[in-house]
Amino acid sequence: MIALRDDSCEVDYASLARRVACVAGALAERGLVPGERVVILAKNRVEFVELYFALFALEAVAVPLNWRLRANEVQTLIEDAGARLVFSEGEFAPLLEGFAGQVVDFASAQADWTPFSALTGSATLLPKAESSAVAVQMYTSGTTGRAKGSMLSHANIDCMQRAWREDMPLVAETSRFLQVTPLFHVGAVLMMVSCVAARATLRLCPEFFSDHTLGVLRKEGITHALFVPAMMQWLLAEKGVDAGGFDALQLVVYGAAPMPPAVLELGLKVFGCEFLQGYGLTETAGVLTTLKPSDHLYDGEAEPPERLLSVGRAVSCCELRLVDGEGAEVSDGAVGEVVARGENIHLGYAGDNESTWDDHGWFHTGDLGRFDADGYLYLVDRVKDMICVAGENVFPREIEMRLLEHQAVQDVAVIGVPHHLWGEEVLALVVRVPESDPSAPALIQHCRGALARFKCPTRLEWVEKIPRNAAGKISKVSLRGPYWRGHDRRI
Ligand code: AMP
């Protein structure tokens, strides 16, 4: 039975266990101890998954980083994680210049390393249900603009995958899951663990390229696939992919960003299979809610039901509530901040003593929503200052700080505005220093000098003044207002 397949190799379950033992052996030989952080910089490939499992086995911590970051950003995160060992693909070597620790090239990950003896028996590859040790540290920025490492335990990931598979049953030796979203995102880790727990096949694509992805989808008998809305929008609306050739496909999973209703409608028609939505955060080890396949059913001739605008109901491993600014539960049908508690909520942020729970033990998501009478959650806005660009989160504070470093920028506010393809794009509202005359391209270029490209503004407008409240805070709600007029939800 094939466990993992990528563009250049495939590994069955028996060899996967052996190969993971070899990677774990090599890590142990390098003196890696439990709890130690190992940074990973790679596109999706078989060895990436093997490394995750080897680190799980050793109770060391995987710190997968977004390879779209710039060298200075990567280095800040490596330092924050305190990693002395980095696994990297050759093409990312320039991101590691100046790193004093050890770099292991992925190409050598299959070399003749000695298997780790503790693993050569019947050891499981998966996170351990009983262990509160950190398994993965994933970076997500806070409102301060500083990235924080969310620590997910073995138990977090284990209970999440069990709950997830209640909604997405996979069949051993039959299901083939297409993984194009990057393995440095929590959703991909959840799919990876779910597939291996079910002994299904995980087909990894290095990244999303529409023709390649479509080719794999149609030719390799893929039964399950995960797409973020921007990928579906690209395939269906921009590339005009039509129905046909998806006979093996049983289920499409989507999430990570709001799904435009028209894209969902088109997707249901073109793919002609079941759909499952997940809503969650890195800090929740994957998802908090699912909108199930049965919720997507409707007579194709009729108007799509309202329910397709929701993110569904809580998964079995957690409870949800909506609260006001004081933490009190809001009345039925009212909008409030989504808070959650359950076994899937992370341990906290690395090196941060502040609790991520409120006094009553609830984790605050920063998302605003309302429940309908049947308990379906509808997200309407965010209280956190975050922009979701094609499924990648961008934190305005970081971009504002970079723009303020420019000599011609006196004041700035960065907000998310609607974009037909990416969901949202980054708009910078800039007050120029008197007598200066910076150009928009020059300021965007300035951002690119220090920030990953997906974070940089794609629009820039000159303004006279940035409105601030009495406490000196920018009211993003009022700044965003005019751009979101006519939209039911402001996300
Ligand atoms: P991340 O921690 O990168 O996974 O981002 C989590 C945030 O992405 C959430 O707090 C939401 O704002 C957004 N998000 C995730 N899933 C969905 C979804 N299905 N619909 C709308 N927004 C989502």
Description:
- The chain contains eleven helices and 25 strands.
- It is α/β, with parallel strands linked by helices and 491 residues long.
- It has a domain at 387-484: 2-Layer Sandwich (GMP Synthetase, Chain A, domain 3), CATH 3.30.300.
- The radius of gyration is 23 Å and the shape is globular.
- It binds adenosine monophosphate.
- Adenosine monophosphate is lined by residues 140, 186, 255-258, 277, 279-282, 311, 365-367, 379, 382, 388, 393.
- Adenosine monophosphate binds at residues 140, 186, 255-258, 277, 279-282, 311, 365-367, 379, 382, 388, 393.
Core attributes:
single chain, 491 residues, alpha/beta, GMP Synthetase, Chain A, domain 3, 9-stranded mixed beta sheet, 11 helices, 26% helix, 26% strand, globular, binds adenosine monophosphate
CATH superfamily label of the domain at 387-484: ANL, C-terminal domain
- The termini sit apart by 42 Å
Shape: globular
Ranges where pLDDT stays below 50 over 5 or more residues in a row are none
Enumerate how many helices there are, as a single number: 11
In spatial order, strands of the major sheet run 2-1-10-9-11-12-13-14-15
Q: Look at the helices and sheets and give the structural class.
A: alpha/beta
Total number of beta strands: 25
Classify the helix fraction into a percent range. Answer: 25-40%
